[in-house]
Amino acid sequence: MNPPNSTLEKSTILILDDEPMTRKVLQLCLNKEFDTIIKDDGMAGMSYIETGSPVDLVIADLNMPHLNGKEFLKVLRGSNLFGHIPVIILSGSEESNDRIQCLELGADDFMTKPFNPLEIIAKVKAVLRRVYK
C-alpha cells in the first residue's frame, strides 16, 4: 500500500489535544518533516477527517472533551472510509490498562506525556513505514 500523499509531498499528521502547550510542542517538533493540522478535541478531529481532507496519521490525546481518545478510536475504526488511518495515542496516564485498552481498540502505538520529541518523530515515521509500505 502506498502512502496517500505522493513522495514529493509531506505526510499530513492530524494532532488532537485539548492542551495548548502540548499542541504547540507537537507542532514544533513535527512541522520540519510533516504537515500538521491541529484540532482541540476528538469531535473536531473526526469532523475534519470526514471532510475528506488528506490525513496520513493521527496523534490523539487520551483525555479530551467531546470525544476522548478511546471514543475517537471506536468511531474511526468503525468507519469503512477512514478506519485505515493509523493512530498514536498520547496520554499523561502511565496505567497499563489504558495502554492495553487503546491498543485493543485499534491504536497503532501509545506514548506517555511528557514525551521526548525525537521519540515521537521516530514513532510517527515507524508507523507510517509499517502502514504504507
TrEMBL record:
Q: Which residues carry this modification: 4-aspartylphosphate?
A: D61
One family name in Pfam for this protein: Response_reg
Kindly provide the name given to this protein in its UniProt entry. Answer: Two-component system response regulator
Q: Which residues form the Response regulatory domain?
A: 12-128
Quote the PANTHER family the UniProt record gives.
RESPONSE REGULATORY DOMAIN-CONTAINING PROTEIN, STRESS RESPONSE REGULATOR PROTEIN 1
**SUPFAM superfamilies xrefs:** CheY-like
InterPro entries noted in UniProt: Bact_response_regulator (IPR050595), CheY-like_superfamily (IPR011006), Sig_transdc_resp-reg_receiver (IPR001789)
Q: Which UniProt keywords apply?
A: Phosphoprotein
Which example biological process does GO assign this protein? phosphorelay signal transduction system
